[in-house]
Amino acid sequence: MLFLNIRNFGQDYSRMICLPASSAGQSFGNHKNCDRHRTILWLNQAILTDLFNQIEITMGHPCETITGSMMMSGQAMKSEMAALQAKTSRFGNEAVDGFLTEAERAKVMADAAVKLEELFDVLRIDHRNDHNMRDTPARVAKMYVEEILRGRFVPPPAITEFDNVEQCDQLIVTGPIDVRSTCAHHLMPIYGECYIGIVPSPDGKIIGLSKYDRLVDYFSSRFQIQEELVKQIERHIVETTAPRGLAIRISAVHMCKTHRGIRASHDARMITTTYYGCMAEDRDLKAEFLQECVGLQR
Ligand SMILES: [Zn+2]
């Protein structure tokens, strides 16, 4: 028997299911054939769990024979859900639309903690009684939202721009900048160094040196692949400062390669470099940049 409390429906969801107010706190649905499928089994399991976290619910068998005026068709429900999902979800290395307020991040953390508890249950870990793991779901959820994926939920760091008064147009190289990121394929750490080479436009802007560190940290705080990480950093710097040339080079260790799979040497690194503007065209500038990188290497 299913009991659904209508007060638990989020506003977005309530329009998907036409429930009379009188159904609050009662079982509803008019599927006669099967007691287990009396209700909105058109919803997928994930959505159901989200909606009814505090409610005991039996689910899992979308039943084709559910009919009745209280329900939308399964197809309509599916497209509603897809639209909802598309409205709020982005790729692992993209920021969510409009970013999240502190209260919204707290909600995401609480929801994620519940899912981590479920994960531990699936993995048969008695996290409720394990003295080591009792608070782990909440702790890990917080770590994801506030640290590992922070660059998806908050805006990029503000960049202090200065006019290029001296009309500097020579190559500036900064680094090593620590890279701490997480691979999108295995959710394992990526760590290493980033070097940035900038050729400012004489009539463009220059930014404070520490801002490059903050930008690297920001874009690294997402589920990344290294090839796209350098591109994201490049795009942002180009858009905000319009330099004449730019080079981003990251050398990093991928723990998905050193701690699993091939179990490669801890020294095994991956290097990705991206060049923009005159840095892409001028071979001497490229060589100068690479030489400075070697010089800066620890
Ligand atoms: Zn990986």
Mean pLDDT: 79
Radius of gyration (CA) equals 25 Å
How many DSSP-defined strands?
Answer: 7
In angstroms, what separates the terminal alpha carbons?
65 Å
Helix content: 25-40%
Question: In CATH, what is the homologous superfamily of the largest domain?
Answer: GTP cyclohydrolase I, C-terminal domain/NADPH-dependent 7-cyano-7-deazaguanine reductase, N-terminal domain
> Largest sheet, if any?
5 strands, mixed
CATH C-level category of the largest domain? Alpha Beta
By CATH, the architecture of the largest domain is named 2-Layer Sandwich
Q: Compounds present? A: zinc ion
Secondary structure category = alpha+beta
Count of separate DSSP helical elements: 11
How would you write the strand order of the largest sheet? 5-2-3-6-7
- Helix and strand sequence: HHHHHHEEEEHEHEHEHH
What can you see in these coordinates?
The structure is a single chain. The protein is of the alpha+beta class. The chain folds into three domains: 6-88, no CATH class; 102-153, GTP Cyclohydrolase I, Chain A, domain 1, CATH 1.10.286.10; 161-296, 2-Layer Sandwich (GTP Cyclohydrolase I, domain 2), CATH 3.30.1130.10. The protein has helices at residues 11-14, 45-51, 74-88, 102-122, 136-148, 150-153, 209-220, 226-241, 255-258, 278-281, 283-296, and strands at 161-163, 172-183, 189-199, 205-207, 223-224, 245-254, 270-277. The strands form two sheets. The protein has a five-stranded mixed β-sheet with strand order 5-2-3-6-7. Strand 2 (172-183) and strand 3 form a beta hairpin. Helix 4 (102-122) crosses helix 5 and helix 7 crosses helix 8 (226-241). The model is unreliable at 1-73 (pLDDT under 50). Bound molecules: zinc ion.
